[in-house]
Amino acid sequence: MPAPVIRQFADAEQVSRAAAEDVARLAREAVVARGRFTIAMAGGSTPRRMYELLAEPPFHDQLDWSKIEFFWGDERSVPPDHKDSNFRMAKLALLDKVPVPAASIHRIEAERADRDAAARDYQAQIARVFGVAATGEPPAFDLVLAGMGPDAHTLSLFPGTIALTETSHWVVPNYVDKFTTYRVTMTAPIVNRARCVMFLVAGPDKAAPLAEVLEGPLDTVRLPSQLVRPATGELLWLIDQAAAARLKH
User: Fold this and answer.
1) Total domains in the fold of the chain
2) Cα 74 to chain center, whole Å?
3) pTM value?
4) In a domain, 56, yes or no
5) Within 10 A of 100 (CB to CB), how many other CB atoms are there?
6) What's the CATH code of the domain at 200?
7) Whole-angstrom distance, CA of residue 120 vs CA of residue 101
8) Which of 11, 158, 193, 232 pairs with 139 at a CA distance of 20 to 30 A?
9) Pairing of strands 5-9, 171-176
10) Burial, 105: exposed, middle or buried (Cβ in 10 Å; 0-12, 13-18, 19+)?
């Protein structure tokens, strides 16, 4: 298992810019190597700024948008036009501004009443795009983007929730007590197959959990971000100085 690569920047803006550069580089490399780039998008303020940068020069013109397949790592149980939708955020910040074919945008239908079916259908959609069996081993995304909350959650893998123990399904509904609602989320089995997982973490409220996740003992029930450990891929942490304040190394 490769060791994580931790890169520190002055502030959230610099984290976002560095992330945009990395995403663009990984996309170009994937298209050359495999003919397309597969990415699982993240919610949150730092990814949003990165999406905005990708939609602008110079990145806008560097990428072949027709060869990128967009997925989401998780989604809230809201319609796609709701202000809290991760899909809506990415659509407004990036997808509406670049020439992406509609068929290359794969959102999670987490607003459906039958969330088990929504998760099952999303797993099937991933399998179709990758050309693999939905009941087999998960495919390898080129990039999974991830954030980390002040409670050390990532995607919609929250402390103490049932999805943390999932070992076979790639996508599951997950009930989150603190919000008294379900979300639909990718799980560790598929995230850890990725060629690269990139965490974007900024802000002083992330300092304590980040120190525990990176330098504390393994406690994935309390610190779900520790579940993200790609088997063979890169694990990148792009963090700002405020988030890094309690790191010892």
Assistant:
1) 1
2) 8
3) 0.98
4) yes
5) 19
6) 3.40.50.1360
7) 24
8) 158
9) unpaired
10) middle
